[in-house]
Design a protein that fits this description.
Arc Repressor Mutant, subunit A, 226 residues, 4-stranded antiparallel beta sheet, single chain, alpha/beta, 8 helices, 5-stranded parallel beta sheet, Rossmann fold
Length: 226
């Protein structure tokens, strides 16, 4: 069986070695980078299954790398897990808005990080989903992980796709932030509701004229309109 490839971008050699060891122990193939520009080249060359990306890097920082990867067609769908310091909340939110799928706050448990990596990679699974979902001019193909708005395909990350499928699959029913965290991200941790809100905002931007199909139910969560 071919191992899934993880690109780890971190300039601290101790953290880099720790991450690489635990990911290899979890049976991933690991590529390591300590420099932002080298990381962009590696992502384009290797097209990994996932990128673990530190925000504070020499050369290009993590936010700039995130923007570049999302702009390039070859790397636009690669999931990104950010590593951030505890006091960088504004940067975490910006990273999510730029296209990161999730984040882990330093100091972190290597075991938790491996679990997060596995959870993100599971989001690409379409098992148990209806093959095609449609609403007005919006069409979602679960088998190919593609989304069209008025017959024009829109780029979408694995997390945005999973979030949209969960909402459309529960059409007319309210899903709380905790339910979405559990179904899409695979966890429920205090303080992570902001992650859901940021992804919903990003998803609505991509749905364009159909953004209002995703309704906010204040104090409860979100609902896909019937």
């Amino acid at each position: 069986m071919v191992k899934e490839k993880i690109l780890v971008v971190e300039d601290d050699p101790d953290i880099l070695n720790l991450l690489a060891w635990h990911l290899r122990a979890a049976d991933f193939e690991v590529i390591v980078c300590q420099d932002g520009e080298v990381a962009v080249e590696a992502a384009h060359r290797e097209v990994p299954s996932l990128v673990v990306l530190d925000l504070m890097l020499p050369g290009l920082d993590g936010l700039e790398i995130c923007k570049i990867l999302r702009r390039k067609e070859k790397t636009s769908r690669i999931p990104i897990l950010m590593l951030t310091a505890r006091g960088e909340e504004a940067d975490r939110v910006l990273g999510l808005e730029l296209g990161a799928d999730d984040y882990v706050v330093k100091p972190f448990s290597p075991r938790e990080l491996v679990l997060r990596v596995r959870a993100i990679l599971r989001r690409s699974s379409t098992e148990g989903t209806v093959s095609v979902l449609e609403a007005e001019g919006l069409r979602v193909d679960a088998d190919s992980h593609r989304v069209w708005v008025d017959e024009e395909e829109v780029p979408i990350t694995a997390t945005e796709f999973k979030l949209l499928v969960e909402l459309m699959g529960s059409r007319g029913r309210v899903l709380s932030r905790d339910q979405l965290l559990d179904r899409v991200w695979g966890y429920q941790f205090e303080g992570y509701a902001r992650t859901v809100d940021t992804h919903i905002r990003r998803l609505r931007q991509k749905l364009g004229p159909y953004a209002d199909l995703v309704e906010t139910i204040r104090g409860v969560g979100y609902r896909f309109r019937e």
